[in-house]
Hints:
Layout: H1 2-13, H2 40-57, H3 61-71, H4 74-78, H5 85-91, H6 96-131
Helix pairs in contact: 2-3, 3-5, 5-6
Amino acid sequence: MRKTVLFLLVAALHPAAAVETGHTRLRGVQPGTTATNPSAAEATEVAAVDRVEAGYWAITVEELQRARHLMRGPRGAFSVSNISPVEVLGIHARSDAERDRYAELFTKLLHDDAQRVLAWQRAGDAAMRRLFPQDKAIDFGRAPNAPALPNWYFAPGGAAP
Length: 161
């Protein structure tokens, strides 16, 4: 009885009892073969995907892998699942200089994205004026409880006469 209890206690506390499954990747195994290590082609494919993703964020593959590793720990529990690797690296920076570098990189990425969004919005506004010159983008006059704002406020271009 004591041996059984001791065995169960050791088994429950042994680190091998915990298995990380958050990033398990299943791959097919052909009949008659064994699934041991990924082939060289799969490793190259994964490395290529990592290089592309790291390039999106302007970081190295090693930095991307570090961010993924950090997300497997408490950071993954504390953060939203779509936090960027740059944010993860900045939060877990190992020095002030590293934190500043990631902050500048993230700020540039946000700035560039804001410029793309604004350019898209301007193109949409121009298309609206071109395709529907007499329409208002939003006609509050048709809505119940329409606001009591002057008509010029809703005119195309939004400028007062």
